[in-house]
UniProtKB/TrEMBL annotation:
PROSITE patterns: HTH_LYTTR (PS50930), RESPONSE_REGULATORY (PS50110)
SMART domains: LytTR, REC
GO MF annotation list: DNA binding; phosphorelay response regulator activity
Annotated Response regulatory domain residues: 3-115
Keywords attached to this entry: Phosphoprotein
Protein name: Response regulator transcription factor
Domain HTH LytTR-type: 130-200
Family matches, as SUPFAM superfamilies: CheY-like
InterPro entries registered for this protein in UniProt: CheY-like_superfamily, LytR-like, LytTR_DNA-bd_dom, Sig_transdc_resp-reg_receiver
Organism of this sequence: Mucilaginibacter gilvus
Entry superkingdom: Bacteria
Sequence positions bearing 4-aspartylphosphate: D55
Length: 241
């Protein structure tokens, strides 16, 4: 089941989306709220939803600012009555943009696409193939060779120890495919391989090839929480003799 959450300051909009979710097989409504601050607390938790339907124009916290904070925890589909926000929405790496009043068939098309984006389980977790820039040619990418992945609208650039490759995938699609135990999102445009991080200084990381990347403010907490689990640091107090 895909866990869904609805955030909108209009009660009717929450009712409509809640009804759509409840009558769609494979979806589960785990919560809804009229207050984005309450929604943010619910989403940025251990039980974060898979999919969040988010209004843009809200008084306490705009949906665009909300997306910056919630991006590491959930996939966002924006819902709004204003078409002019579309470019800003996709700049936040939103999965989709639904224009109010939302028709059920348009809603269904969006969630069906979300369901279908899951990549089949790999037979071999050590590598995968991508379409390269030469038509009809597939390129093998060894997962252990990946340094980091850079998102560029509907394309990604995979930076490896052997060079870089451009392919027609979104950063969200490749993020879902890679093992979360080895890779993490540090910015809306960057995914890094933990094993290739050489140093971390403040909000910047340096990779083995000396590339320096910034940790986005929306991803900082999640990144350092995961990093703590991979760190061997004494918790004793006092100075070493």
């Amino acid at each position: 089941m895909i866990k869904c959450y609805v955030i909108d300051d209009e009660f009717h909009a929450v009712e409509v989306l809640s009804d759509f979710i409840n009558r769609t097989p494979g979806l589960e409504l785990v919560g809804s709220t009229l207050n984005p601050l309450i929604g943010l607390d619910a989403i940025c938790s251990a039980n974060s939803p898979d999919l969040t339907f988010l209004d843009i124009n809200m008084p306490e916290l705009s949906g665009l600012k909300f997306a910056d904070l919630a991006a590491p925890y959930t996939t966002i589909i924006f819902t709004t009555a204003y078409a002019e926000h579309a470019l800003d929405a996709f700049d936040k790496n939103a999965f989709d943009y639904l224009l109010k009043p939302i028709a059920y068939d348009r809603f269904l098309k969006s969630v069906s696409r979300f369901k279908g984006r899951t990549v089949p389980e790999r037979n071999d977790p050590n590598y995968f193939y991508i379409k390269g820039e030469v038509k009809g040619k597939l390129l093998r990418i060894k997962i252990e060779d990946i340094l980091y992945i850079e998102g560029a609208l509907n394309y990604i650039v995979i930076h490896t120890t052997e060079g870089k490759q451009l392919t027609y995938l979104t950063i969200g699609e490749i993020e879902n495919y890679l093992p979360s135990s080895s890779f993490t999102r540090i910015h809306r445009s960057f995914i890094v391989n933990y094993a290739k991080i050489k140093t971390i200084t403040g909000n910047h990381i340096t990779l083995d090839d000396k590339t320096i990347l910034s940790i986005g403010s929306a991803y900082k907490t999640a990144f350092f929480d995961l990093l703590e689990k991979k760190s061997l640091i004494s918790k004793r107090t006092g100075s070493a003799s």
